[in-house]
């Protein structure tokens, strides 16, 4: 039903003109020829439709002149209506509008998703990783041509300006888990981060930066993490010269996740030691590290390490193994 209303909204002008013509015809015949309302409506209907049935009553000269103008006016409306509808359908506007409407409906239904602002090199790679790991996401990009370069399906996308509040709201910023700012302009990223933080205080925001001076501004604006692709790229190349197999293996771990292998972080809900948890023996999952509530990282923690409520446990294993550890630390 809503899709029909959406289509009607595109052709409301000729519809309003047509309704006005009918009303004018009825009132004109009542006033000029003293017809009853039913007779006036009947006379208007056969005149507008150019059916050519017999007149209800013989028309006066004034009535005939009025009928001539009514016919000519409605021919003009009909021509205009056909032009609008033809352009709407055959120029592809109807299909594009309908697709945009259905896309908006689909976006309104998702939650706990990631919003990716910008679909350049960085945004496309981020969306690709999210797609491979079956994490729902919405892409916002102003340039429609960039969508054509995607080598994976974009089930939720918006061709719009991410710097506008209403666009972020349409993308479900209030229901999203994270936002990735991957636009090429640092100023735009700062603006989006600031807006997103204002709209959702709890969302995790990751932004890219091209200039070192922008890192501090993005963090002040509300970004949880700021990434400089050029810096990371240089470090990546250096690591490949030192430990090529190790680096490639780490990259594989971070991008090729499935139900058989995951790297996950779990929030600890009760105080427990790694000895008591005994994750490897009881579940098969391997503990990689711990992030304390103070923000410190403990890599390869000792078996005697103590976990406290609020700490984050980083581990790897199959999806079912991670779920079993999740149950043991008190988070359901």
Automatic annotation (TrEMBL):
Assigned keywords, A-Z: Membrane, Transmembrane, Transmembrane helix
Primary subcellular site in the record, as a coarse category: membrane
Subcellular location: Cell membrane
A GO CC annotation given for this chain: plasma membrane
Domain of life: Bacteria
RCK C-terminal domain span: 250-331
Domain named RCK N-terminal: residues: 111-228
The protein's name in its UniProt record: NAD-binding protein
GO terms for MF: monoatomic cation transmembrane transporter activity
Spans traversing the lipid bilayer: 12-32, 65-90
PROSITE patterns: RCK_C, RCK_N
Pfam families (UniProt xref): Ion_trans_2, TrkA_N
Membrane topology term: Multi-pass membrane protein
Example GO biological process: potassium ion transport
